[in-house]
Write a structure and sequence with these properties.
Blueprint lengths: L22 E2 L4 E2 L30 H9 L4 E3 L2 E14 L10 E14 L5 E12 L8 E14 L2 E14 L13 E16 L2 E14 L15 E15 L2 E14 L9 E12 L5 E14 L7 E15 L2 E12 L8 E16 L2 E15 L7 E16 L4 E16 L5 E3 L2 E2 L3 E14 L1
Antiparallel strand pairs: 1-2, 3-4, 4-5, 4-23, 5-6, 6-7, 7-8, 8-9, 9-10, 10-11, 11-12, 12-13, 13-14, 14-15, 15-16, 16-17, 17-18, 18-19, 19-20, 20-23, 21-22
Length: about 450
């Protein structure tokens, strides 16, 4: 499925809703599962179909059925307009990652996409909003929204592209690595990027630059903890090269450097410089088995005196196997350094493996499921504090009914078990108790989506 995934460490800041289960909102489509944004270097090439942000459409049973049933959009003077609207009702056993925080979950989302239908150059815009209501925990309700735009221009044999995205999002208590979060914490992002792709026969050089500004706020209830110490600006320069082995298959090399500047006086020492190099293969010509693999390493050096540098191998994989037109299996895996989502962690080394399967039961009904295991080792900002490791196990099931070209219905169930140990002393986080160590969350929901 197509997510507008945002790369926190690598620089792609086009946001995806972190706890989306049903709706691939900005794509204007309904999906079986919409996972937390994965900070994958691979995704730099395939995050969305907005100019300036790349393209991504993995072959799968679900996507094939989706595109076969999808309306072609509304043509308006050289543009294609695709509005969408979705209503979801469900229940979650653990909204805040603490006992006694169960609630119904009522989500309303809408989006509008506009893409040019020109021959050479292109322009695209996207806007979306998600209102999430928890009737039993009204203080935990929130609104996410995003507006993005991009353009590309053909210059000789090369393509110059640029994009901008603005988002208002929220950190969730049950998401991996969000230590100290109880009620949703708001944050805004502004992302600017520019890239140039210059082909030289089978060889292509792709320099790019991005600037990201992250601003974090305070939770509306509970401990009233201010997360402003996470606010920072990130400058990223990337040089990618691509060599086409054959049509649809390529070798890729990525060199990346970035610099983070924290605005909060108490967090200035958390600023860092980061460098990484990655070699990969992108094999997508085979209609049955397609995969992208990246391997390399990265190192992060902090500005504070006495701060320890972090160096780790980086590995990523994106494998798509479609043995028949009725079945798809997808594997995604990652390991790398990612920016903290909590003031109690300065950096996080994340490892995540996810397996998804989809089956076309009938021409208009698709069944799917996933299993995922992830853990993060987080270093605390304090010089004397140790590490905290959080491990999460997730699985889920979904059934999607393509009623007609405009209407889709989905029923989903998902489960998360999270274990946390080690690290800083116990920290009170909300009205329910203390810093959580272990929680289990179950959710079920039903969604109806109307999309062009």
């Amino acid at each position: 499925m197509s997510n507008l995934a945002r790369i926190r460490s690598g620089g792609i800041a086009l946001q995806s809703f972190q706890k989306c289960v049903l709706v691939s909102l900005f794509a204007g489509t309904v999906g079986t599962f919409c996972t937390q944004a994965h900070a994958q270097v691979i995704s730099q090439y395939f995050p969305s179909d907005l100019p300036g942000y790349g393209t991504s459409q993995n072959d799968s049973v679900f996507n094939r059925r989706l595109f076969e049933s999808m309306h072609s959009g509304i043509p308006v003077d050289g543009f294609i307009v695709r509005p969408s609207l979705s209503q979801t009702a469900g229940w979650s056993s653990t909204v805040l990652g603490t006992p006694g925080s169960a609630s119904e979950d009522v989500d309303t989302s809408a989006s509008l996409r506009l893409n040019s239908n020109w021959g050479r150059n292109s322009v695209g815009m996207s806007a979306g909003v998600l209102r999430r209501e928890y009737p039993e925990l009204s203080a935990a309700s929130y609104t996410n929204w995003n507006a993005s735009g991009g353009a590309s221009a053909t210059l000789g044999e090369g393509v110059l592209s640029g994009g901008y995205s603005h988002s208002i999002m929220h950190l969730g208590a049950t998401d991996l690595g969000n230590f100290g979060v109880s009620y949703p914490v708001p944050y805004t992002t502004d992302d600017y990027r520019l890239s140039m792709q210059q082909p030289l026969g089978r060889f292509a050089i792709i320099p790019s630059f991005s600037y990201d500004n992250y601003q974090f706020g305070a939770a509306p209830a509970g401990a009233q903890r201010d997360f402003g110490s996470l606010s920072h600006r990130l400058f990223t320069e990337t040089l990618s090269t691509r060599y086409e082995i054959s049509q649809g298959n390529a070798l890729v090399f990525i060199g990346r450097g970035s610099q983070a500047q924290f605005s909060d006086i108490a967090s200035v020492a958390n600023g860092y410089v980061d460098a990484g190099g990655f070699f990969g293969i992108d094999l997508r010509a085979d209609p049955v088995l397609q995969y992208r693999l990246l391997a390399g390493g990265e190192t992060r050096h902090f500005k504070g005196e006495g701060s320890q540098s972090v160096t780790t191998p980086t590995l990523e994989a994106d494998v798509n196997w479609m043995p028949t037109r009725l079945n798809t299996f997808m594997l995604t895996a990652r390991r790398g350094i990612y920016d903290p989502t909590s003031p109690f962690a300065r950096n996080q080394i994340v490892t995540d493996v996810r397996l998804e399967a989809a089956h076309e039961l009938r021409q208009d009904i698709t069944l799917s499921g996933f299993g995922e295991s992830a853990f993060t080792d987080a270093n605390y900002a304090g010089q004397t504090a140790g590490k905290r490791r959080q491990t999460q196990f997730k699985f889920g099931l979904a059934a999607t009914w393509f009623i007609n070209r405009y209407l889709t219905a989905s029923l989903t169930y998902s489960h998360v078990t999270s274990y946390t140990k080690g690290g800083a002393p116990i920290l009170p986080i909300d009205d329910f108790g203390f810093s959580r160590a272990t929680f289990t969350a179950n959710s079920v929901s039903f969604s109806i989506s109307l999309a062009q």
